[in-house]
Amino acid sequence: MTYEAQISFTLDTICPWTYLAKKRSVLFSLYQSLLDEALRRFRASDEAKDVTFTVKYFPYQLYPGATKEPESRYDWYKRSRYGDSEEKMKTYIALMSGYGATAGIKFKFGGTVSNTMDAHRVIQHFQEEKGPETVDKIINSLYLQFFEHEQNPSSDETLLKATSDAGIPESEAKPFIEDKNDGMLDVKNLVRQQAGNGIDSVPTIMFEGKRRDIELVGAKEVEEYEKTLRQIVKESK
Fold first, then answer.
1. Which residue windows are transmembrane per the record (predicted)?
2. Architecture per CATH, 3-236
3. CA torsion, points 204, 168, 190, 72, in degrees to nearest 10?
4. Strand partners, 10
5. What pLDDT digit, counting tens, does each position of 163-172 carry?
């Protein structure tokens, strides 16, 4: 009998390391995620008959104190992370630009930032309504818009673009996006739940197994994800 295992992927849509984790690929298209590539390799192996993996996304807020009102992303990041040091901020930009270049990401550091709760609300709603393939497209669009096109991470315009990129009609997405209360309590509870589970950084990816769960934190190479998948299969027998 095939064992069904869940991969819990905890993220925030303004985390550059999570974007790197989804975009890096050593051997294949730069538009594939590492985890997706590891799953593709696994599903092509003989072991795939023993375990079925499904990916489910969970919300986390790196900066829960951020307001809904947009503010300068550059100034906010410099102040909140680097003590308002211009020198440290320039070092960060150089570092992330270098990492991004290896993954096909053209990081930009302008635009605005705001609280990401509405983005998480949209992700969770359409994950339940449309499934993992659709929600993955929403997440990819949100990362692209924020990190490469300098868009506000939670504005109605950004969220509508993300749902449109995922193939969801505006007539279906817009009413949900504009109703700020719809699903908000549920997503707030999920954020608290993730914090209660000890998650304090993203990306955090939990591979659930029969004998034990295996947690990977941060952007890993595809081979490490693949190794973890095979370990879960080995321990499920």
1. none
2. 3-Layer(aba) Sandwich (3.40)
3. 70
4. 58, 204
5. 999 999 999 9
